[in-house]
Amino acid sequence: MPVLARRPVLALAVLLQAAGPSFALTADEVWAEAQRLSREANAEITATGRRQGDRLILTGVAVPLGPAGDRVLLRLDRVDLLEQPDGSVSVVLPPEFPVTLDLEATDPDFDFLVLAASAPGFSLVISGLGETADFALTAPSLAVSLDKVAPAIEVNERLDLNLAVADLAVSHKMDLTAVTKVAESSLRLGTLHGDVLVQVGDGVEFAEMSLDLSGVTGGFSGLVPPSAFAAEQAMSPDANPLPVLLGVLRDGLAMNGALAFDQFALRGSIEEGDTLGTVEVSSESGRAEGRLDATGGGYDVSLGKTVTMTRGMPDLEFSEVAMSVAGIGYGLSFGIGDLTQPQEARLTAHLTDLEISPEVWAKEDPSGVLGSEPLSYALDIAARYSLQPEMLAPGWTPDPARFPPVDLVDVTLSRLMFKGAGIAVEGDGALTFDESDLTTFDGLPAPEGLVSFKATGVNALIERLSSAGMIPDEDLTGLRMGLMFIAKAGADPDSLVSQIEFRDHALFLNGIKLR
Question: Is the pTM of this model over 0.85?
Answer without folding.
Answer: no
